Sequence to fold (442 residues):
Amino acid sequence: MSLDGLFLPQSIAVYGASATDPRKLGNKLLANAASGAGAVLAVHPSAAAIDGVPAVARLGRPVDLALISVPAKGVEAAVTDAAAAGAKSAIVLSSGFGETGAAGRTVQDRLAALAGAAGMRLVGPNCMGVVSHLGNGRWLNGSYFWAVPKTAGGLSFVSQSGAFGGMFFAHLRTSGLGLSRFLSIGNAADVAATDALEWLGGDSQTTAVGMFIEGIEDGRRFVEVARRISARKPVVVLKAGKMKSGARAAASHTGSMAGSHQAFQAGLRRAGVIEALDTEAFFDAMDAAAAGITHTRPRRIAIVTISGGPSVLAADAAERAGLTLAAIGSATLDRLRPLVPPFAALGNPIDLTPQCPVDNFVQAIEAVYADEAVEGVVAINCGLDFPQFGTGVARGVAATGKPSTAYVLDAPGVEGEIAAAGVLRFASPERAVIALAGGLDR
Fold:
């Protein structure tokens, strides 16, 4: 069954807004939904309108999406009403189901069965909802979030954790990257991570998919779907519950069975999926995916710098991430030697040193980019603010198109040149390397 009604609804019904207390989460959900996503209707037993939105006692008509935010004891009635009215999809944001134990799981299974019998897709329960760019400046905010990014782009994100969705939104705001779709699946009674991934794989607006996963029950299907999609667009996964304590926490959070991380990891590798080992690596990998770096995955890189220590850290990170420091060719070395001091280290990492004549930085860095053995470049500059260093990186990228990342500290002129060229900057040398490797740090 299609998820079009979930991500691209033209009509929405909201259950759970209060006619007397505008502070309720249901009222925030109603206000969010009414802020830009087609025809919106409130469902309330007695009110004729809530917060300016028309209300009905029973839905009684088909809608693309029903948003349900009522106490747990009232959820089954709301799901039954939406299904009977012919809703294409429903999101149960309410908690108190499978994450609470066996009794809650029984009720949760009954909700999924009710929806399935009516041909209605069900997201949740125990989730934060959906956010989707509808085009022409219009956004669906079918979530509890007070503020969501409104910059359109190609990144989509599926999360079992609603709170991690908030962290993702905060990262988008600080990075300036654009959002396509977000879905919080919570307990995944019906719509699972694999279902969402499959839909996003066919979504022309989505160029890369990120996923926060606590557990996967349909592992074989997930690997098959992920393999098909990762061949066309990057898929980046952050898996929670890798260790025993994390697995116990996942079970109490969404009722998820975390399973063997080793088996999950092997499946991701077979599928060509990028596994980020922590939050920072996940966001770095998503940045790299947005910049088009991730899918190229250079394996032979050059580290070009003016300072030895940070480049040694970068070299260590490269080895951990499975990258190779490219053997710089003799022709390149012949180009470099007249440009740099005799004590410069040219073996890769390529340390041009602070004593390199300022006007020679551009030619030297261009020579590194031109080397046929070099597939990608990490540029490192700590405190030597000669913009020519950044100009060399910018010209190298423009001439060769080779994927590049950078670590720049206290050198705003250099950073400005690099940023203008679209090169991603990271908060440490290691993170710059790992992002170039696709977020992998073994």
Notes: DSSP finds 16 helices and 20 strands in the chain.
